[in-house]
Structures are given as C-alpha cells and as structure tokens.
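Sample entry (186 residues):
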Amino acid sequence: MSASAAASAPAPAYAPEPVRPAAGPTAAELLDFALRTAADPGVVASLPLDPEGRTWVRLDGPGGSEAWLIGWPPGTGTGWHDHAESRGAFATARGRLTEHSLAVRLPSEGWKSLELAPGVDRSRALDAGAGRAFGEHHVHEVLNASPTEHAISVHAYYPPLPLIRRYSRSGPVLHLEHVERPADWQ
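Predicted structure, serialized as tokens:
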C-alpha cells in the first residue's frame, strides 16, 4: 500500500488500548527476592556495619523494584512509618528483627491524628531466614531489640518508594509527624 492509500484508509472503529506500564513484581515476588538475597553470604558480608547507627546499601531489585541491604545496631529501629503506595517485603539475613504493625488499613491522606481501635496491634519476630511481605499503606515499625547483636536485613519495594510517612504513637493515638521524599534518604 502506498503512503497516499494508507492516509485515505478508513480509521479503525475502535481506539487501541493504551499501553500500560508493567504491573511490576508482586509482594510474594519481592519476598522471594529478599529471602534469596538474605541467604547470600557474599551480599550480607558486603555491608559495612556501624556500631552507632543503621547502615544501608542500595541493591538491584527485581522488575524495577527498589531494594536495600540494611544493618541494624543493637537497640535501633525505624519508628512507625508506611511506604505509601508501594508494596514490599523484607527478610532477616542475620540476627532477629521485630515488626510491630497495625492490622487495619488507615486512610492514606486527610488526617493528622487517629485513635486506633482495640485489637489492631500485631507483633512478630523474624529470625535469620524469615521474611514478611506487605501491601500498600502498611503501617509498621521494625526494630532490632537485641542489646548486643547487630541484625542485617534485605528490603524490596515496588513501585520504588515515592515517599515514607513517619508517625509517632501515644497509646492508641497515631500522629502523622512528617513525610520523607527519596532525596531525604538516598
């Protein structure tokens, strides 16, 4: 067909579907990556540890995800936070981490303080080789409760973290404290 014939051809009766970006890895796939990476002694040994504060190294995550290898000195933690619209997973490579989480989906915007209903608190210990996957807007805190041992973990998020919301907690009341953007932690 010549260029002029193509130009005069009738338009299709339907609009083609827009090209959608790939859905990215699922939370289960992120967990599989975190567990496999946490079991790799070479990767784990590559992390420089600091006795005073958490250390981290960015990793190549699967399918365009964001991934981190994180070192946790004794007694350190994240504080209450969420990862906004990102789903994620983490696995303990060395030591033991404790996750405290809320078994309720909170509104993602439009509030500064919320009173939590009784029974929404969850807690789990994750020894080396154990991991956890979670969905969007998952509010939790992760900590190394050991008074003497470093812990190391692998974390992966998709889509790459657009922001992290930080919270404080007073009994049943959760307060939104501030929002961090990627430039704040990279």
